[in-house]
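Hey forum,

I'm writing up a methods section and want to include a predicted complex as supplementary material. The small molecule is coenzyme A. I've pasted the protein sequence and the SMILES. Can someone with a working setup run it? I'll credit the forum in the acknowledgements.
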Amino acid sequence: MDRLRTECVLLDPLAREDFAWLFALYADAEVMRYIGRGPRTEEESRRNLDWLLAHGERLPFGYWVLREHATGERVGGAVLMIRREGAPVELGFMLARPAWGRGLATQVACALVAHAFADLTLPELQAFTDVENGASAAVLRKAGMRDTGLHPGPYGGLDRRFELTREEWLSSRTTGRGAR
Ligand SMILES: CC(C)(COP(=O)(O)OP(=O)(O)OC[C@H]1O[C@@H](n2cnc3c(N)ncnc32)[C@H](O)[C@@H]1OP(=O)(O)O)[C@@H](O)C(=O)NCCC(=O)NCCS
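Reply by user p_vandermeer:
Happy to help. C-alpha cells for the complex are below, copy them as they are.
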C-alpha cells in the first residue's frame, strides 16, 4: 500500500501501533452513529483491524490512518476494501469529532478515488451510507460518486449506495465534471 497525501492530510497504511487510537475512535457513539451496529468493543475493533491489516498485506489497498500535516495528529481512518470475494471495491472513511466540518473527508475521498482509478486502475468503486448520514453522502457526491438510491447495505438494512466506474471518472476529468 502506498502512503498518500492531500493538501492537509497524510494517509499512512494501517499499522499495529495505530490500534489503540482506533479502538477509541470505534468506541465513540457519535462517530459510529450511522455505522453498522454502532460503537464497538475493543475485541470487535481488534478483529476488524486484524482483518484490514491482512487485507493490506494481500492487496495494494486497504486501510489508511489519517493524520493532519499541520499537527501530525491522527484524525481518522479511510478504506478501500473488498468486503467479500467478488464484491466491488468499497470506499469508506471516518473522522474523529474535532476534525469534522473542515473539508478533510472530502480531500481524502477525492484522493482515494483518484488513487483507485489512476494508480490501481480499478474498474469501479462503490460506497454505502446510512440514509440519515447527510454529511457522508455530501462527501461522496463531492468526490464524484453517483447516488444510485437505496439498496441492501453491508449491515443488513437499506443504505444509500454510491457508485463510480473508471470510465465515468476518466470522462469527468476530461469534461471537468465530477470529482474536484
Ligand atoms: C461523514 C464525515 C466523514 C464527514 O467528514 P467532514 O470532514 O466533516 O466532511 P467535509 O467537511 O469534507 O464535508 C462535509 C459536507 O457535508 C455537508 N453536511 C454536513 N452535515 C450535513 C447534513 N446533515 N446533511 C447534508 N450535508 C451535510 C457539509 O456542509 C459539507 O459540504 P460542503 O463542504 O459542501 O459545505 C464525518 O462527519 C464523520 O467521520 N462522521 C462519522 C463517521 C461516518 O459517518 N463516516 C461515514 C460512513 S459511510
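Some notes you might quote in the supplement: The domain at 4-175 is CATH 3.40.630.30 (Aminopeptidase). The chain has a mean pLDDT of 96.
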